[in-house]
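Progress note, sequence design subtask.
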């Protein structure tokens, strides 16, 4: 491995989070005028609790839920021990005769053992005593945590009532955007954060989602070991709640983690001189945590089985087909999540795409399995019909042994068979369904489009949208598999993890250390193939994959319309909206066709709104009566695009809301900023009217984001046609060598393609000359007027530049070593650690504070 010579590097600020002249502001408030909320030390935890209380619909609902969780834990443990030690199953199954003084039937108390016998059974069973001790310690820990949370959330309740002026009865109907706006407003009065005069929406999101943004970035860069190639199953994903818990324990908040508190990365992880020592220390810590998981595996496994049994047995009995239903996998939620996207915003998006995703997966039912299921359902239905008829004729038939069990099993069998029989009215249209799914989930590999009918695409999509039964099975296997992943897979990536946190951590005044990807800076993390051509300086190592930076930026801007992005970002957003609106206006007018330049895709929005895979056929609104189109006969997508006009948006919105609620003073900006939460209280209106209004507003914001996501994907598809995508399903493991790139591509004489280095961590095929020139032409005009902020007010722990020029102006090709320095192609990268140069004197200096907005 080449010497890693990068030290604590600085990067120019991507935006300014304070007004001019307030970079080093420290608010001083006289002692007598300080409020209760002045200078909250741990704002991360405070804002998380404010958000959690809002999502749990107030203090009473949250308190009741916490109490029932404690009771549920006691019930599961106590009831399981009772069933295992205090029940006489011979009496219950009529295998033993019970003497009664009268001729009455056997009752349940007859099957319960006496208390002394029950206690003797428990004392004689060492495993039961061990489980009870572990459960008791865990329950006491939960009880102490519950009491602590009650005190903390009582303070948050007081904050809502006294500072935000919102009662607990109003909270279930208020949007998070409304709560957030009030928090930003009271910052001026209470000075919650003393390091900044004003808070921004991005500051609040960064504090709530600090660690989740890191997790999203690590999944986006394929750093976490969650994808495996198994001998029989092939490509598989294993990412469970237990594995996610261990990742967060290791990285963020556990003993010896990389963070010293909620908002600050430890100083030693910000410098590259001792990266090898830190990697060895992290590997050792991962090993010990893996061993601890292995020792606790029996207890956790028993708990998982019992909890699954008590949770899903009643559901399976009531709805036997529920196991055949699907749900978004935990990996899918992390892969599809935008940077700076709250939980309720993510689940709202995925819920809207659930029906289309289910229909798409149902398109691939096996014809052979369908024939078998129909015949099995016929035979099982015939037997069930006879048993039901006999029961109706004489109820004593139920007293016959196993009759009731047979009826239950036959009913389950019929329900399961029906899940394999497709709807006879269903039309096979996977391409259109996949396009509808893309409109909601916003992320999709390029090779899926045009191949939606293939089983390979279906299998890869099933990793994001899995069976509920598979989800339960993975959770049950998690205690066994998690230690193996930690010990044998995650430990090998310890050096890359250390480099990742150093290279992609920036410090923001008033916020602390955050993931640099969460800044949504096109210049630093944009991708040239995703409308960032000519506006990004990021190497392959720094680029976010799958257009994550660009799509996250658009989503955050639409969800939070009052957010003031930096000048370059504002230019990118406004130009994107202008291009979409220009094509939408041309698509909706037959007399004024679009006239685009040769470098732009022709009528992208026209193709979206009309054609075999139309967006106009996609119904985004939950209820058509709530979101009536102002223009009769216009597709829903075109109507949403019309709303992008700053002139017509206000009038269009008022016309659409006339059936629900008369609102005056709404602007186009307010329309797009409703967010995705469907709960609000309008001033002077009832809670129901406010909620109805919010439903309409949220549909407009959701539709606008869907249109932009489809447009960006269509533009990316046309710009990168012919290239091999570098997405999750094609990216190689981070420990593989970049030598796997084909020789014909490696020797490509195109000098422009060498502007982006080949990354050993995230290898990619270099673009062809034709595509590069087309992309350059198409992206020249966009973002040309954006200024590059040159400031030393941001601190970033990043790697060195990618390419450098040798003698005679020759470009020296470099390959990226795992999450660290760069090695020349001519030299083989050693997999063993080599001595690293001593840290420079800059490391001994106190760190500088830099500012980011």
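Output:
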């Amino acid at each position: 491995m080449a010497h890693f010579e990068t030290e604590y590097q600085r990067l120019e600020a991507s935006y300014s989070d304070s007004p001019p002249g307030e970079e080093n502001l420290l608010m001083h408030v006289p002692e007598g005028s300080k409020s209760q909320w002045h200078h909250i030390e741990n704002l991360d935890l405070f804002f998380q609790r404010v958000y959690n209380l809002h999502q749990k619909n107030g203090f009473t609902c949250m308190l009741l839920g916490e109490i029932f969780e404690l009771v549920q834990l006691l019930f599961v443990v106590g009831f399981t021990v009772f069933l295992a030690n205090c029940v006489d199953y011979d009496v219950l199954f009529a295998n033993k005769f019970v003497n009664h003084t009268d001729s009455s039937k056997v009752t349940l108390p007859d099957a319960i053992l006496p208390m002394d016998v029950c206690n003797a059974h428990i004392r004689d069973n060492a495993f039961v005593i061990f489980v009870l001790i572990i459960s008791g310690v865990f329950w006491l820990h939960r009880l102490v945590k519950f009491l602590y949370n009650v005190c903390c959330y009582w303070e948050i309740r007081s904050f809502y009532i006294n500072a935000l002026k919102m009662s607990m009865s109003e909270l279930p109907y208020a949007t998070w955007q409304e709560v957030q706006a009030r928090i930003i407003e009271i910052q001026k009065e209470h000075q919650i954060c003393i390091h900044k005069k004003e808070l921004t929406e991005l500051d609040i999101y960064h504090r709530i989602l600090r660690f989740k943004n890191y997790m999203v970035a690590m999944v986006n860069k394929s750093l976490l070991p969650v994808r495996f190639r198994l001998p029989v199953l092939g490509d598989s994903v294993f990412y469970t709640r237990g594995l996610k818990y261990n990742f967060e324990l290791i990285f963020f908040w556990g003993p010896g983690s990389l963070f010293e508190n909620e908002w600050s990365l430890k100083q030693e992880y910000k410098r590259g001189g001792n990266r090898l020592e830190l990697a060895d220390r992290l590997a050792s810590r991962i090993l010990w945590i893996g061993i601890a998981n292995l020792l606790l595996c029996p207890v956790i496994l028993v708990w998982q089985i019992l909890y699954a049994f008590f949770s899903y047995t009643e559901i399976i009995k009531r709805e036997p087909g529920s196991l055949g239903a699907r749900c978004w996998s935990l990996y899918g939620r992390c892969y599809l999540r935008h940077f700076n996207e709250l939980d309720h915003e993510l689940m709202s998006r995925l819920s809207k795409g659930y029906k289309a995703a289910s229909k798409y997966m149902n398109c691939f039912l096996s014809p052979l399995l369908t024939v078998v299921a129909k015949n099995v359902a016929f035979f099982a239905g015939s037997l069930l019909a006879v048993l039901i008829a006999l029961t109706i004729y004489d109820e004593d038939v139920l007293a016959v042994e196993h009759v009731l069990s047979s009826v239950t099993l036959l009913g389950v069998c019929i329900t399961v068979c029906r899940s394999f029989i497709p709807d006879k009215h269903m039309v096979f249209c996977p391409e259109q369904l996949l396009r509808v799914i893309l409109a909601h989930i916003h992320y999709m590999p390029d090779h899926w489009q045009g191949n939606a009918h293939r089983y390979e695409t279906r299998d890869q999509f099933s990793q994001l949208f899995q069976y509920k039964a598979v989800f339960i099975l993975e959770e049950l296997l998690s205690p066994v598999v998690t230690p193996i992943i930690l010990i044998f897979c995650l430990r090998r990536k310890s050096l890359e993890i250390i480099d990742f946190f150093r290279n992609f951590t920036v410090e923001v005044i008033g916020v602390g250390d955050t993931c640099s990807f969460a800044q949504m800076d096109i210049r630093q993390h944009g991708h040239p193939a995703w409308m960032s051509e000519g506006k990004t300086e990021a190497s392959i190592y720094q680029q976010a994959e799958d257009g994550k930076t660009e799509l996250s930026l658009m989503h955050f801007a639409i969800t939070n319309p009052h957010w003031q992005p930096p000048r370059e970002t504002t230019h990118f957003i406004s130009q994107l909206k202008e291009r979409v609106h220009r094509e939408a206006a041309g698509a909706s007018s037959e007399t004024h066709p679009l006239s685009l330049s040769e470098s732009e895709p022709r009528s992208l929005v026209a193709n979206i709104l009309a054609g075999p895979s139309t967006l106009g056929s996609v119904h985004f609104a939950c209820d058509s009566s709530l979101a009536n189109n102002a223009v009769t006969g216009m597709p829903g997508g075109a109507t949403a695009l019309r709303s992008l006009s700053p002139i017509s948006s206000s009038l269009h919105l008022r016309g659409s809301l006339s059936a629900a609620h008369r609102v005056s003073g709404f602007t186009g900006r307010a329309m797009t900023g409703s967010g995705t939460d469907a709960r609000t209280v309008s001033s002077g209106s009832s809670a129901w009217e406010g909620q109805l209004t919010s439903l309409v507003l949220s549909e407009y914001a959701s539709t606008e984001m869907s249109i932009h996501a489809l447009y960006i994907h269509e533009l990316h598809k046309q710009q990168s046609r012919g290239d091999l995508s570098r997405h999750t399903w094609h990216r190689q493991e981070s420990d593989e060598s970049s030598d796997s790139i084909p020789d014909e591509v490696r020797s490509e004489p195109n000098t422009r393609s060498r502007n982006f280095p080949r990354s050993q961590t995230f290898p990619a095929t270099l673009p062809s000359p034709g595509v590069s020139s087309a992309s350059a032409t198409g992206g020249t005009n966009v973002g040309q007027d954006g200024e590059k902020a040159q400031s030393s007010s941001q601190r970033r722990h990043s790697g060195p530049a990618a390419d450098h020029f040798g003698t005679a102006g020759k470009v020296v090709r470099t390959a990226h070593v795992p999450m660290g320095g760069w090695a020349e192609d001519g030299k083989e990268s050693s997999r063993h650690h080599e001595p690293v140069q001593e840290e420079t004197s800059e490391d001994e200096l106190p760190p500088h504070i830099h500012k980011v907005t």
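Residues 1-29, 590-606, 608-685, 732-853 have pLDDT under 50 and may be disordered. Work on this subtask will continue into the next period as scheduled.
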